[in-house]
From TrEMBL:
Cofactor(s) needed for function: Mg(2+)
Presence of keyword Transcription regulation: no
SMART domains registered for this protein in UniProt: NDK
EC number from the UniProt entry: 2.7.4.6
Protein's name according to its UniProt entry: nucleoside-diphosphate kinase
Binding of ATP, residues: K9, F57, R85, T91, R102, N112
Family to which the UniProt record says this protein belongs: Belongs to the NDK family.
MF (Gene Ontology): ATP binding; metal ion binding; nucleoside diphosphate kinase activity
Length: 134
């Protein structure tokens, strides 16, 4: 078993699709370990995406992530980090494989509905960012 962090982004909470994403995760046999609804400040969003400092899209991304509520969650499964990246699909919904969450409900390369940690090391850091008690 391992754990990873998923964030349901503000474009999903805005469209009342949180339950849909949770259902996709549960049907794919991820167990929910922790979950909460929160609204990031721009300062927190910038801290979370510090790895993208210097990229041209960072300011827009930070504004988007702080634009409404999001739902960070910790999920558990064998091979969780890799399997969740497969389930959500490529960053750009237009390029994400058919049947992936981003292909299904993502709006564009920025408002792509969900974030998931991309490595075990980042999963540990990102889980601690939102759920220091775990
Ligand atoms: P991820 O790991 O698939 O989420 O992709 P990245 O770590 O490369 O990017 C982080 C987030 O930044 C993505 O999920 C998008 O929300 C946003 N993003 C990535 N690339 C672009 C881009 O070229 N333009 C814009 N506007 N946003 C982007």
């Amino acid at each position: 078993m391992n754990r990873t962090l998923l964030i349901i982004k503000p474009d999903v909470t805005e469209r009342n699709l949180v339950g849909h994403v949770v259902s996709r995760l549960e049907r794919a046999r991820f167990r929910i370990v922790a979950m909460r609804l929160t609204r990031l400040s721009e300062t927190d969003a910038r801290r979370f995406y510090a790895v993208h400092e210097g990229k041209p899209f960072l300011s827009d991304l930070v504004r988007f992530m702080a634009s409404g509520p999001c739902v960070p969650m910790v999920v558990e499964k064998e091979n969780a980090v890799e399997d969740i990246r497969t389930l959500i699909g490529a960053t750009d919904p237009a390029k994400a494989a058919c049947g992936t969450v981003r292909n299904e409900i993502g709006r564009d390369i920025q408002m792509n509905s969900v974030h998931a940690s991309d490595s075990d090391a980042n999963a540990v850091k990102e889980i601690a960012f939102f759920f220091p008690e775990l």
